[in-house]
Design brief:
The chain is of the alpha+beta class and 165 residues long. Helices cover 28% and strands 37% of the residues. It contains 4 helices and 10 strands. Strands 1, 2, 3, 4, 5, 6, 7, 8, 9 and 10 form a 10-stranded mixed sheet that branches. The longest helix is centred in the N-terminal third of the chain and has 15 residues. The termini are far apart.
Length: 165
């Protein structure tokens, strides 16, 4: 190594040991460059926000056990059939019918509950439905786009999988 290279190395090393070196501003500059050169795709950002909205430490995930779009045999001549969904978590079952007019369903075993219709990134609070003592609930606003349900019955919190309306 010649003396010119050694001087260059000493100069770089001196810059790195400088008290003026600020990791925070470097990180800020790198984040800015990444945002311009390699931005996060809108779809990925939406999915991440939805996943965070689903995050509830006390919640159990209700598994989709029936979806009429996949599991039912189509009826000839019926063009606007409601979508029937069944979710299960332990001994709790939620049957939901989704139509263009809204949704209705029942919690089994029958019990009062509060059902929140989650719709992804929303500026407002989710639509909230109330199940009566027989576990029945209905809402006149149909979900649009991806949605999930968060059910609060007594001490239990159950969240369904995300589906497209």
């Amino acid at each position: 190594m010649n003396t010119s290279d050694e001087n260059d190395f000493d100069e770089i090393e001196g810059d790195l040991n400088d008290d003026e070196f600020d990791c925070g501003s470097l990180e800020e500059e790198l984040r800015g460059a990444a945002a311009v050169l390699d931005p996060v795709p809108a779809e990925l950002r939406r999915i991440a926000v939805e996943a965070f909205a689903l995050h509830d430490m006390d919640a159990r995930l209700a598994e989709l056990t029936f979806d009429s779009l996949v599991d039912a045999i189509p009826v000839r001549g019926v063009t606007d059939a409601p979508r029937m969904l069944t979710f299960r978590s332990g001994d709790l079952t939620v049957d939901v019918e989704v139509t263009s007019h809204g949704l209705m369903g029942q919690v089994l075993p029958p019990q009062p509950a509060r059902i929140e219709v989650l719709g992804g990134p929303q500026p407002a609070a989710p639509d909230t439905l109330t199940a009566d003592a027989m576990g029945r609930f209905a809402g006149d606003v149909p979900p649009s786009g991806p949605f999930a349900l968060r059910l609060r019955a007594g001490e239990d919190v159950v969240v369904t999988e995300w589906l497209r309306a």
